Amino acid sequence: ELKVGALLPLTGDLQAYGESSRNGINLAAEEINAAGGVLGEPMTIEIADTQTEPQSGVDAAQRLVSVQGVSAIVGALSSGVTIPVASSVSAVEGVPQISGASTSPVMTDLDDNDFLFRTTPSDAFQGTALAEVAADEGMDSVAIMYINNDYGEGLADAFTDSFEAAGGEVVGTSAYEPGLASYRGELSQVSDGESPLLLIGYPENGQTILRQALEGGHFRNFLFTDGMKSPQIVENLGAQYLNGSAGTVPQARDDTDAAQHFTEAYEASFGELPPVPYIDTAYDAVYTIALAAVAADSTDPVAIRDHLRAVNDPDGEPVGPGDFAEAAELLGNGQAVNYEGASGSVNYDDNGDVAGTFAHWEIEDGEYVTVRVFEPSM
Amino acid sequence: MSLLSAEALYAGYGGVDILRDLHLRVEADEIVVIIGPNGAGKSTAMKAMFGLVPIRSGQVRYRGEAITNRPAERMVSRGIAYVPQEANVFPSLSVVENLELGAYVLRGPNGPRMERVFEIFPRLKERRHQQAGVMSGGERQMVAMGRALMVEPTLLMLDEPTAGLSPRLIDETFERIRGINQLGIGVLMVEQNARQALAAADRGYVLATGENRYEDTGPALLANPEVAEMFLGG
Amino acid sequence: MIEIERISRAFGGLQAVRSVSFTVAEGSVTGLIGPNGAGKSTLFSIIAGALAPDSGVVRLRGEDITGLPTHQLFHQGLVRTFQIPHEFSRMTVRENLMVVPAHQRGENLIHSWLRWPRVIEEDRAILRQADEVLDFLEIGHLRNELAGNLSGGQKKLLDLGRTMMTDAKAVLLDEPGAGVNRTLLGKLADAIERLNRERGYTFCVIEHDMDLIARLCDPVMVMANGELIAEGDMATLRRNPQVREAYLGTGVSGNAGGVAS
Amino acid sequence: MIEIIQLLINGILLGSILALGAVGATMIFGVLRFAHFAHGDFMAIGAYFALTVVTVFNLPVLAALPVAMLLTGGLAILIDQVVYRRIRRVQPVILLIASFATALVLRSFIQMVWGGSNQVYEAGIQLPLRFGPLTVKPDHLLIFAAAAGLVLIVHLFLSRTRMGKAMRAMSDNMDLALVTGIPANRVIMWTWGIGGALAAAAGVFLGMDTRLHPVMGWTLLLPIFAATILGGIGRPYGAILGGLVIGCAMELSTLVIPGAYKPAVAFAIMVATLVFRPQGIIKGNA
Amino acid sequence: MDIAGLSAYAVFFLSLVGIYAIMALGLNMQWGMTGQFNIGIAGFFAVGAYTTAILTTAPAEGRVGGFDLPFGVGLVGSVIACIPVAWLVARITARLRTDYLAIATIGIAEIIRLFFVNESWLSNGTRGIPGIEKPFGLGNNGYLLIIAAFVAVTWLLVEIARRSPWGRVLRAIRDNEPATAAAGKDIARFRRQAFVTGSCLMALGGGLYAHFVGFVSPEAFRPLYGTFLVWVMLIAGGSGNNLGAMLGALVVWLIWSSTEMIAGLVPTALIGSESAFRVFLIGILLQIILVSRPQGLLPEKRPPMPGEKR
Ligand SMILES: Nc1ncnc2c1ncn2[C@@H]1O[C@H](COP(=O)(O)OP(=O)(O)OP(=O)(O)O)[C@@H](O)[C@H]1O
Ligand SMILES: Nc1ncnc2c1ncn2[C@@H]1O[C@H](COP(=O)(O)OP(=O)(O)OP(=O)(O)O)[C@@H](O)[C@H]1O
Ligand SMILES: [Mg+2]
Ligand SMILES: [Mg+2]
Question: Is the entire prediction scored with pTM above 0.90?
Answer without folding.
Answer: no
